[in-house]
Structure formats: structure tokens, C-alpha cells
Amino acid sequence: MADQFDTRKKIIENSPKPENTKSVAKGRAVGITETALRDAHQSIMATRLRTCDMLPICEALDEVGYHSLEMWGGATFDAAMRFLDEDPWERLREIRRRVKKTRLQMLLRGQNLVGYRHYADDVVREFVKRMVGNGIDIIRIFDALNDLRNMEAAANQVKREGAHLQLCISYTISPVHTLDLFAKQARDMADMGADSICIKDMAGLLTPVAARSLVEAIKSKADLPVQLHSHYTSGLAAMAYLEGLEAGADVCDCAISPFSMGTSQPATETIVAALSNGMLDTKISLEKLLPVANHFSKLKEKYKDIIMGISGVDINILLYQVPGGMYSNLQSQLKEGSAIDKLKDVLEEVPRVRREMGYPPLVTPTSQIVGTQAAMNVLVGERWKVIPKEVKQYFLGYYGRTPAPVDPDIQRKATEGEPPITCRPGEKIAPELEKLKGEISAWATQPEDVLSYAMFPQVAKDFLRKKFARETLINVGLDEPLADGTYPV
Fold this sequence. Notes:
Layout: H1 2-14, E1 31-34, H2 39-44, H3 51-54, H4 58-64, E2 68-73, H5 76-82, H6 88-98, E3 103-108, H7 121-133, E4 138-141, H8 152-161, E5 164-170, H9 179-191, E6 196-201, H10 208-221, E7 226-230, H11 237-246, E8 251-254, H12 268-275, H13 286-302, H14 315-320, H15 324-336, H16 343-356, H17 366-380, H18 389-395, H19 408-415, H20 433-440, H21 447-455, H22 457-475
Parallel strand pairs: 1-2, 1-8, 2-3, 3-4, 4-5, 5-6, 6-7, 7-8
Helix pairs in contact: 4-13, 7-8, 7-21, 9-10, 10-11, 15-17, 16-17, 20-21, 21-22
């Protein structure tokens, strides 16, 4: 397995690499990160875009002049194995082989990596090592509570691997989330070795006025490039981008027009055109975006039955500060329980629960935790009578330090008197890597398979069994590739 990895690493190392410039601020040419290969399809079609849909357009994307291509991490890792029967590591390698000028970027959930729980430090270090070795240039790391301790292990390994470390401020609104707090976090991130800082507005709450003030506050404390990430759900994102860029931000996340707006990002072509011939010109030509837009227009037609997301503005985002994905999940859960008439009550309960839980930003996994508890409170008819295991773990400190103190009475009820931890949660997890290697050794054909198993044990085990059987057939010449270069199951 080690030899296979070394061979792939040499291929990647010997291919032309994009320049790893630390900032575009000096020239004030604004950078554009294209999200069509990751967050855009995660936002509008439940992360169902296949690798074979991506590969034909890679060379054209590489010619555009993007700051980076976000194409890995987030929910793509899970969805690739669970729903598409694809190896996420192979997707990364195939895109890297085709994209030789532009940096590849991914989203990492801190100590959660690309999963939904905290993993041991040895798993975190190995995961970062492998993803950089397979071709990732920029690693964007966030934590749902903005607890920098949950970013430490991954951030340290990114620096060791020589990749670009981008640390995120998960933007939210509450009495404790002030400009001073965000600016201090930016200063602390710079001290951790961040190469850039991302304002991650997962709910589309960032107003133009707030964007300008926040960028100025961050820049006053940290001499680093700032990147803007927002969703169009509330209709504010493009205006927020313009104000933030004029205040000194360096890069913004956009999606090619067929996969843009709604619950996705602002359209790439729109932002490029809006900034053209001004002081913030992106230096990207609309002509080079045409083949990209045409390709994704065809994909939008191909997947029209599963394209979802909000086509216009959703006022609930602004009223209840509930991200689009969380809103959709609450709708779905209540429909399944024949309680859709309770939706307004649940939405009104979310801010109360969030306050009692110390104002966590609503992003994976805290959005699910807060949303589930709010629904429980409404459906049971008594607040905090039923408390799920994840909520108990939250109150015990296993998700990290909360932005504000939690309600002490509710904490005592949730923890049943058990004392909360105060250390970095990752310190409580024993090393896992060697144990995981032993459990999956029969089906692992590459070192990365162990990490896939670590993230999603049952899903990965089922996937790896099929993959092992398929590769065995290929090795003895009993299986032939399809026209797109992939192999049948």
C-alpha cells in the first residue's frame, strides 16, 4: 500500500504546481474561488454530482484564472461512498491530474475532519498528510463553535505538510458575537500560523454593512488575506461581497451561473462582470467562463429531478437565523412525523434553545443538535423533557467551548450531574489509527481506505468490499472500463 501511495505522490509532485502566493491584496486583483465542484452541488442537489460529471470540464476550469477550485471535503466525502459508489480519494487524484495551474481547495471540519464526530489526533494528522499528498493545496478549516482548540491538530499538520492553511470564522449573530470577538479570533488565528482567514457565512446572514465592518476589524488585527464565503439564500450575498471587497477582502466564493444563487453562492459571471474594469477587477474574462457555464447547464438539465434549494429569497433566514439546509431538514423531519403544522413553533423555539446552549453558530453539527432539541421541545409539549445523547455530550463539553455560558439549570438536567470537561475535546480520545487498520485490513487496498473507514465505518466497509472485488476483477482482466474511464460496480 505504501508503494502505491509513493507512486501517486511522485506523479503529483512532478506535475506543474500552481504558485502558492500568500495574498492577492498587493495588486488588489480580486480572486474568485469556484465552488461548482463542491459547495454549489452540495447546496442545490444534495452533493450528488459524480466524478464523471466533473472531469470533462477540468481543463477548461484550469484555464479560467481562478484563485482556487473548491472540489473536496464537506459532505462530498460521505456522499461519494454512500450514494455514488465512488472513492473520494480517487476523485481528488483524477481532478489533480487534470488541473495543473489552479490550486485545489477543500473544506475540513476541524477535529471532525469530514465526519460528524471528533477523531483522535493520530487520525487527524494522517488524514491531512494523505489529502495534501494526493493533491490538495488549500485547506479551509472551521469549527462549529469557533473553538480554536478544535482546529489545532489539523492546522499544525497542514503547516508541517507545507500546504496553505486557511482558518475560518463561522459567522453568526448574537449578543456575544461582536466585532471585537471576531477580530480577536482573527488575531489568534494568525498566531496559529494561518495563511489566510475566511469569513464563513453559512446561513447567508452577512449584511453589506456587517461585511464591511467585519473585514475592517479583521484586517486591523491580522495582516492576512481575507476570503468571503456566503450563501444567496437571504438575497444578501452579492451585496455583502461588494462591500467586503471594497473594505479590503481579497477573495470571494462564487458558483458558475447554472449552479448559483438560491441556497448556493453568487454567480461567478455576475461578480466578474460587476468588478470588471474597476479597481477590484478579477482579471477573469467572461469568454473563458462560457464553456464552463455550458457544461454545468447540461448537468443542471441532467439532474433536474434532484436539483432543489430555494430559488428566491427565504425570509425565514433573516427572521430565525436558520441556515437553508437546517430549515429544509426541519421541514422534512416534521413532515415525516405528520407535524408540519408545528414548523412555525419549532422555528420560534430555535433561538430560545440556541440562547440556552450558549449561542452556538448554526453549522454542522451544531445546527442539527439545536434543531433536533427545538423540535423535541415542541413535539413533546414540555421543554427539555427529552434530551438526545448528542445534546448531553454538547453540555458536557465534548463539542468544545461554547461562545457564551450555557444555562446552568438546563446543563445540570442534561448532564445528570456529570461534570463537564474543560480541556480540548481531542485530548479525551485515545489513538485510533492502528486499531482501525486492523479492522479494515482485509478490504483496504490503499492507505487512504483506512481513513475512509475511520470517517464512516459501515458505509466504507460496504463500499470497500465492492471496490476490492471490482479491483480484483480488473487485475485479472475480467472487467473493462466504461467510456468515461470509470468501472462498473
